[in-house]
Amino acid sequence: LLNAVIGADLGGLMLEKVAERYVEARSAEVPEVPVAVAACVVLAHLYNFGVVSCALLYDLVRKLVDAFGPADIEVLLALLRQAGPQMRRDDPSSLKDIVLAVQAQARKVTSSSSTATSTGAAGARRTQRRRLSPETNHQRAPHTTNASRASCWCR
C-alpha cells in the first residue's frame, strides 16, 4: 500500500535493506539462521504484495536448493510457506522445476548421508526434508494466509 502511495522508492529501499540484512546473516562467521529466515519472510511478503517480481524469489529458491544445507532448508521452508501459493499462481512450471530440483538434491544428500558416520546431522536433515516435501508438493490443505487476506484488503 505504501509502495503504491509513495512510489517505487520505498519498495526499492525496503528491498535493499532486506537483501543487505540477508547477505550479512548468511555470510557471518556463524550464520544467523533466524535472521536469514526473517529476511526471507519479509522478502516473501514484498513479493506477495507485488513489490518484487517472481524472478527474484525463484533465483533465491534455486540458490537455496543448490546449497541445500540445514540452514538453507530452513530458509527455503519459511520462504515457501509465505510465498508458495502466490508463486504457484504466478508460474507453476518454474515451481515444478524447483520441486524436481529439491527431490534430486534430497536423493543426492540421502545417498551421501547413508555413508556418513554422523547420524545426528543426517537425522536432522532427514527431518527437515520431510517438512519440506509437503511444502513443495502442495499436499497441505488449502488455506487463506494472512498475507493473501491483507493483499485483498489493500486492493
Report on this structure.
The chain is mostly helical and 155 residues long. The chain is built from eight helices and no strands. Helix 3 packs parallel to helix 5 (70-90), helix 4 packs parallel to helix 6 (92-114) and helix 5 (70-90) packs antiparallel against helix 6. The N and C termini lie close together (8 Å). The mean pLDDT is 80.
**Gap from first CA to last CA:** 8 Å
**So how many helices?**
8
Largest sheet: none
Shape: globular
> What is the chain-wise order of helices and strands?
HHHHHHHH
Which stretches are poorly predicted, pLDDT < 50 over at least 5 residues?
none
> What is the strand tally?
0
Q: How large, in whole angstroms, is the Cα Rg? A: 16 Å
Strand content: under 5%
Kindly state the mean pLDDT as a whole number? 80
Give the fraction of residues assigned to helices: over 70%
Q: Strand pairing plus helix content: what structural class?
A: mainly alpha
Summarize this entry quickly.
This protein is mainly α and 155 residues long. It is built from 8 helices and no strands. The longest helix is centred in the middle third of the chain and has 23 residues, at 92-114.
Quick tags:
mainly alpha; single chain; 0% strand; 82% helix; 8 helices; 155 residues
